[in-house]
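Thought: the user asked what LEM3 (Ligand-effect modulator 3) family / CDC50 family looks like in 3D. I have the sequence; next I should run the structure tool and report back without guessing.
Action: structure_tool
Action Input:
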Amino acid sequence: MYRTGCLTEVPFEVTSYMKAPVYLYYGLSNFYQNHRRFVNSKSDKQLAGHEVSKRSLEVGSPLAYPWEERSTVEEFRVGSYNYSLFDFVYSPAGLIPWSMFNDTFLLYRVASDTERQLLCNSSAFSRLTNKPLEAVAAFGKGCIKKGIAWSSDVKEKYKPIYFPPYQTHHGPPLRDRAPYFVWSASPSAYGQNASATSDNVYFENGWYNEEPGHAIPVSTDEDLMVWARAASMPKFRKLHRILNQDLSPGKYIMVVGEHYDVSSFNGEKFFVLSTLSWIGGSSLCLQKMYLYIAAASLISAVVFFFLSKQYKSRAVQAVEALSSS
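Observation:
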């Protein structure tokens, strides 16, 4: 297992032609997304862009507030005023946003011993609009991020978060009433101008408190939507990007920016490149089972049809014999 925060090159070979679209998945093992506490650890109202009350936010705990599991709570400045961690709530709150998979992928085709062709940069996309940040022409046809999540999630369930107006807070702590301020990705990540700067480096950069570099997700990020769809088994894979170009047989290199720590739960992580056929993905177990059941049902129907014909004719003959006698 590699330590997090490093770049890992994974060379591999494509042995058969893969026709576009090619789907890039990431996978985890020994991660129980179906645990009840994990599934409930988000605020649907908050993710839908509404102002939350204390009651609706409690479903996001733990990791709902930046003061949780902190021995000291110091004041810091935002704009012209001083605030405490008690004045803020994470947005989005809960274990689901906090634990979102955040490794990055660079896919290269090996043209020669000294030349690589970049096919996909998974991090070159806006977290707000999910559109490319750089020209697609820079890496061929490239890959896309927009469209990896369910359309119902994009249209209905996930909206830009609610930003309450900054104001001086002189009341009781946040845990005793509805929150006033949100601790989130920076307003610029949502396409808004920052109303005030802060001397707290975590708040200013949109990081989780005392977790350097751990960015708080943007609520409209389709990576978050995919992650929030809980897997039923501890080993799973989730759609990450879609490549718009064919992959011909040859040598490739995946450069993985490892930021996601799996050692804490004794897990493993992996990536998969796959295509779809008319019957679905490369794992045909479920499709084969459906075909076998359908074939067995059809054969049974035919057998019972002929049996009913045979026994029906005998029954008619018996009735006629009784009538004639």
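Thought: the tool returned a structure. Summarizing for the user.
Final Answer: Structure for LEM3 (Ligand-effect modulator 3) family / CDC50 family predicted. The chain has two domains: 6-282, 287-324. Residues 11 and 253 are 4 Å apart (CA to CA).
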